[in-house]
Amino acid sequence: MSKFRKLFKNKARRNHYIVGMVILIATAFSFILFIQRFAYISMSKQYDGVNLEQRTKQKYEHVNKVNAKRGDILDVNGDMIAGDSTIYNIYAIVSKKSKTTDGKADYVVDREKTARILSKYLPLSAKQLRQYLSPKNKDQYQVEFGPSGRGLSIEIKRKIAAKKLPGIHFVELPSRSYPNGVFATNLVGFTQANNANDQNSNISGVMGIEKYFNKILAGRDGKKITKVDNSGNELPDSQVIEKSSADGSNVYLTLNSKIQQYTEILAQSIDEKYEPKDLQILVMNAKTGAIEAATQRPTFNPTTGKGLDTSWRDTLVEDQFEPGSVMKILTLSASIDSGNYNPDELYKSGTVEVGGRTIGDWNTAGWGYIPLSEAFTRSSNVGMVKLEEQMGPKTWMQYMKKFHIGDKTGIELPGEVAGSISYEHLSDQAMTSFGQSVNVNTIQMLQAFSAIANGGKMIKPQIIKKVVDPNTGKTTKTYKRKVVGQPIKASTAKEVQKAMREVVTKNYGTGMVYNVPGVKVGVKTGTAQIASPAGGYLTGSNNYIFSVAGMIPYNNPNYIVYVTMRQPQKMTEAPEKILSEVFNPLVKRLVNQGKSPTKATEAGSQYVSIPSLLDKSTNDSLTKIKDLNLQSGVIGTGNKVVQQLPASGEKVMPDQRIVLLTNGAMTMPDLTGWSKNDVLKFAEITGKQVTTKGDGYVVKQSVKSGQVINGSGKIIVTLKNK
C-alpha cells in the first residue's frame, strides 16, 4: 500500500512538473508574440487595418476646412460682375432635450409664435410652418423647411435672428453674388455648391468664365485643427493652423459695364417685342480685339436661376450656324486680294445653275445684267457665285483658311466649336461664297471681320484683360492684342470698307435702314436659311437667321458690332427694321460714350465733376454726394458701392441724381420724385426692363420700394408733370 502511495505521489509530481513546463512555455511564447505584436503596432501604428494614429487624431482633434475666398470677376474698369457671397439655410430644433450651454431651452418653445414670425420672412404661410414645426415622431431632433428655407440672404437671416426665437438656427454656406442681375450671364457663367447643405462645401463654376477659370478663381483651401477632449469639447488655447488658405485670383474682363448694360436693355426689348428663338449682340474694339459687350437671348438670371432651363450654354462659342450673307465680306475680300475682281464686268442676276442646283438671289427675278461692283451692295448670291468661280475653289478655300474659318479662335471660354466647311460638291463650293454650306461660331466671324478693320491684320477676340492675385496685389497674367494672321492686304481692306459703306448709302443697298446720322457706318446684312431636320432648308418668312455686321466708322473702325437673330416668332416688322432697333441706338451710344452730356462753360464752375464711389461704403458715398449738392438713389441693401451712374469723371449740373448699385440683394428704391432721365439710369444700371408712362416726375411704380427685383419682370413707372 505504501508502495502504491509512493508511486502515485511521484506520478502526481511529474504531472505537476509537465503542466508547469507547458504553462511556462505557453507564457513565454505568448510574451514573445505580445512583444512582436507590440513592436509591429508601435512601428506600423496600425491594428486590424485601422490606423491608430489617425483614429486618435480623429478622437482628440477636430479638423475644420478653411474655405478660400473665391476671386471676383470684374469689368474692364474694376466694376463688380461676380463676387464672393454667403447664403443661409434655416432649420429648427424640436427635441426638448436640446439645451444651451447655460441650460436654457434650445428648441422651439412656442410653435404658434415661431410660425407666425417666420411667415413674415419665408415664402410659407403660418399654417405651413406649424406643420413643419410639428415633429413626426418623438425622437426627431430637428426639421427643415424645404426649398423655402434654403438660400436665404444675409438680410433675411439677420431679421430672423434679431427675433431671438428659441430653437431657430442657420447653416452658413458659400455662395456667389451677381449684383447686376442679367449681365452677359451666359458668358460670365454661374456656380453651384458641391454640397448644398454642407457649410464646408466649395462652389465651382459650371459655365462661362466661372468654369474656364474655376481653378484660378477658387484659390486654395486651408485647414484649422482644434484639440478636443473625450467629450469633444474644445481644449483652451489649442487652435493650430496646419495650412493657411490662399484666396482665389480676381479676373478682369474686357467688358465695359456701361455698354453692356445698355446692350442688355436693347436685347430685352427685342426679345419681348419679337420673341426670336435666338438673339446675339456683340461689340468688339476693332483695334484691340477686346469684347466690350456680349449678350444673348434666351438668357437667365444667375441669382434666381430663372430661365436656366432654356439657356444652359454660351451660344456665342458653343453654337455653330450658317452665317449667310455677312460671309460675303470675306468673299469680296478674297476676290479683290487674289486679283480676280473686275468690278465693271456684267453678269446676269436672278438665278444660276451650279452642279445641277439652282441658286437664286433674294430677289429671284434679279436686276437684269448688273456690274459685279453692285453684287455686294445688293447682296446678290449669284454675284458671289460668279466671284467664287473666277477665283476657283482652291483659291477660295485658301482664303477661308486664312480667315481661320473652321478653326477655333482659342478665346478663353469653355466649349468653343470649330465649325465646318462642306466642300465636296460644286454646289457646296459655290454656296460657301454667300454663307451656306459653311458653319461658324459668332466669335469666329468677329475675328474674321477684324482683318477688314485693321488693314488686313486679323486680331484675336479677347474677353480677359488681366488676372490679379489679391494676396499680393500683383497682376499674374495680362492679355494683350494678338495678331493671328494677315489674310488680306491693307489695300484690299480699304476697298471692302468702302463697299460696306455703300451698302448703307446707295439707294439700292440692303442696309439703308442702318444709316445713323452723323456717323459713317459701314455694314453688311445677312439672311441665312436654316437647315431642316428632314433635309433641305426650312421655309417661311421668319425661318432665317437675320444678321448685320457693322464697322464704326467704316474708314477707320473703332468698333465692330455684330447682331444675329434667329426665327423671330412675332415678325411684325421687316427683319432689317428689327435689327436696326438694336444696331442704331447702340452705335449712337458707342460714338457718344465718354462725352459729357452737357458742355461746361469756360470757367466750368457751375458743373460738378463726378467722383469715383466704387468700393466705397454706401454711407460714406451718400455723404459725399450730399456734400457735392447732388441727389442720390440707392439700389440694393449692401454696404458697398459696386456701380454708379453717371460714371466718375463725367460732369453734371448741380442737383442731378447719382444712382448707386450696392452689393447684396438688388432691391427696388423709392422712385417717387425721380425724373425720366433718373429712371433711365435705374434701368441701365440694373438691366431691368422699365416702361415709363407720361412725362415729368415719378408718382407711381409697379414694384414696391424694398422688394427684391431679381426676376420681378417688367417694371412700370408712371410720371406726371408738377
TrEMBL record:
Its main location: membrane. SUPFAM superfamilies: beta-lactamase/transpeptidase-like (SSF56601), Penicillin binding protein dimerisation domain (SSF56519), Penicillin-binding protein 2x (pbp-2x), c-terminal domain (SSF54184). The keyword Metal-binding does not apply. One of its GO terms (cellular component) is plasma membrane. Gene3D superfamilies: 2.20.70.70, 3.30.70.2110, DD-peptidase/beta-lactamase superfamily, Penicillin-binding protein 2a (Domain 2). GO terms for molecular function: penicillin binding. The chain crosses the membrane at residues 16-35. Residues 604-661, 662-721 form the PASTA domain. Belongs to the transpeptidase family. A transpeptidase that forms peptide cross-links between adjacent glycan strands in cell wall peptidoglycan (PG). Part of the divisome machinery that synthesizes the septal cross wall. Beta-lactams inactivate the PBPs by acylating an essential serine residue in the active site of these proteins. This is Cell division protein FtsI penicillin-binding protein 2. It comes from Companilactobacillus nantensis DSM 16982.
